[in-house]
Amino acid sequence: MPPAIQTISGQIIDIRNREIFPGRLEIRKQNIDKVIRLESAPDRYILPGFIDAHVHIESSMLVPSEFARLAVCHGTVATVSDPHEIGNVLGVEGVQYMIENGKKVPFKFYFGAPSCVPATAFETAGAEISVKDIRALMKDPQVKYLAEMMNWPGVLNRDEEVLAKLKAAQEVNKPVDGHAPGLKGEQAAQYIGGGGLEREVIISTDHECFTLEEALDKLKYGMKIVIREGSAAKNFEALIPLIKEYPDRIMFCSDDKHPDNLVEGHINELVKRALRKGYDLFDILRAACLNPIEHYNLEIGTLREGDFADFIVIDNVKDFKVKSTFINGELVFDGTQTMIPQVENEIVNRFGCAPINSEDIVLEASGSNKIRVIQANDGQLITNQIEGHVQYSTTGNLIADVDRDILKLVVVNRYTTANPSVAFIKGFGLKKGALASSVAHDSHNIIAVGVADNDIVKAINEVIRYKGGVSATNGSSIECVPLPVAGLMSGEDGFLVARDYSSIDSFVKSLGSTLSSPFMTLSFMALLVIPELKLSDKGLFDGTHFQFVDLSVC
Fold first, then answer.
1. What confidence score (pLDDT) does residue 544 get?
2. Number of H helices, E strands in the chain
3. What is the DSSP pairing of strand 45-48 with strand 421-426?
4. Residue 83 burial class via C-beta count within 10 angstroms: exposed 0-12, middle 13-18, buried 19 and up
């Protein structure tokens, strides 16, 4: 007997031909066998599924199989995923873990080869991904691209190792993702050309544009712009006007999205926001559904005969409420709940530091009464370098100044026992307590911020106790969400992890934090490749000039 055919009828949205027509899909196994036009059809809309064009699955604190269970509820059928978070912890072994875990569920994960592990030489990571590793990964058909080239100084200075990684991608005709915040003009052109003087586009995307001016400059040199709206970095409002003039060169992404936010929405929220602003439906859906497929050469259906049956059904083109999600012809969301079952998830990790004590994070006075302070910015990854006046304890040591919102920031090497790095930060707003996390881009050492040393130490040691997690303390009160998979993710039910994360997020905000996502912001305070001032396990770092600096200002 021939295989059974399932059918679904509705108003079919043909993005390529910019039309909506009543029709019926006939699906045989995993593929669309026929697309049939009808005189009339039910008042529901069928369209290709959404794609997150750049995301670190690890930032959801969920393994890929659990991420998928949440994402399909919002019409997401695929992600273009950079596994450099777990790569910094476990190297190629971590990349393979993500690929294999993603295969356990009916969802389309497309992973890249992390290009910058470690991200810099100014921090301690758990692993290295070499040029040899990149060449091997690039030959793997499961690896679709060379992930974000964060080492833009290496590109501009034509670093031999950096160029070899770019060449490895070129040799197999796979795209290279960019990461060059603030780069414009001739430097942007040179970076896009892979360090060359010709105008060939080698590094072809960037999700780090903060301003319309920067994005337009990069578009001018041939780049595609990925509009990001994550839990910490939010660039949608600044960049969405690009879609009107460059619909074929825009994509949407979340980059980093915490589990509570993933429960609420995903790429579907960007589509709805763009529609409310009056932008063209087909241009928006091109960015959300088609452009990633064409750019990365993905095996995802777009409602053509012979395509994989990857599509979603929505109520109408105004509210965009997802009624069902199909991947390879399988119903994975029925309008009320995910249909993807939980699977068993292996625990892999690298965690080797001992607990610390309060004496380890004491800062003795240096003689100067001015210090460099990191200014955190809500909704952005960039920080500012500002000056602050020191506050002294009764024993003459530097301490937090709560009234001026200048708090102590600590980074602890999680791979081996070493002296912590200590600095000061403004922008968290805590009035009491502390929070800590083993999610600290990109090397994922332990990072903590707080008012009093004893709370900071308690939060850090709670993370160490679980060999990974996010924690918050206030005197005798303590909460923690364990993240035992690489110190980055949980293998438990994603909906429950989201619930627990919401609880600890609320706890932190009850301590006074004014940030929309305190843990996400904290996780980027060690990301040295984003200017201006950050803290690694090796010291205070000026990301503009790529060098360590003293805490004291002479």
1. 86
2. 17, 29
3. unpaired
4. buried
Q: Which amino acid is at 223?
A: M
What's the average model confidence in pLDDT over 377-388?
A: 89
> DSSP readout, 46-80?
EEEPEEEEEE-GGGGTB-HHHHHHHHGGGTEEEEE
Taking the C-alpha atoms of 337, 289, 45 and 304 in order, what is their torsion angle to the nearest 10 degrees? -110
Question: Which of 392, 424, 430 is CA-nearest to residue 408?
Answer: 424
Q: Which residues, listed in sequence order, are joined to residue 201 by a DSSP beta bridge?
A: none
Pairing of strands 31-37, 19-28: antiparallel
Q: Please list the residues that pair with 486 across neighbouring strands.
A: none
Cβ-Cβ contacts under 8 Å for 33 (sequence gap 6 or more): 5, 26, 27, 305
Q: What are phi and psi of 546, to 5 degrees?
A: 55, 60
Encoding tokens for residue 98? 């993500």
Q: What is the DSSP string of 423-476?
A: EEEES---SS-EEEES--TTTT-EEEEESSHHHHHHHHHHHHHTTSEEEEEETT
CATH homologous superfamily for the domain 46-333? Metal-dependent hydrolases (3.20.20.140)
pLDDT at 330 over 60: yes
391-392 β-sheet, strand order: 363-364, 397-399, 391-392
What's the rounded Cα separation, in Å, for the pair 533 and 542?
Answer: 5
The whole-number average pLDDT for the span 490-495 is: 97
**149 in Cβ contact with 115 (< 8 Å):** yes
Residues 205-218, mean pLDDT to the nearest whole number: 95
- The single residue listed with the structure tokens 């912590």 is 420
Confidence of residue 1 (pLDDT cuts 50, 70, 90): very low
Q: Across 135-193, where does the E strand assignment appear?
A: 143-149, 176-178
* pLDDT value of residue 116: 93
Q: In what order do the strands lie in the sheet with 45-48?
A: 31-37, 19-28, 5-14, 45-48, 311-314, 322-327, 330-333
Identify the burial level of 363 via C-beta atoms within 10 angstroms of its C-beta, where 0-12 means exposed, 13-18 middle and 19 or more buried: middle
Task: At 219, list the tokens.
Answer: 């578009």
Is beta strand 50-55 parallel, antiparallel or unpaired with respect to 76-81?
parallel
Q: Would you list the domain boundaries of the chain?
A: 46-333, 369-548
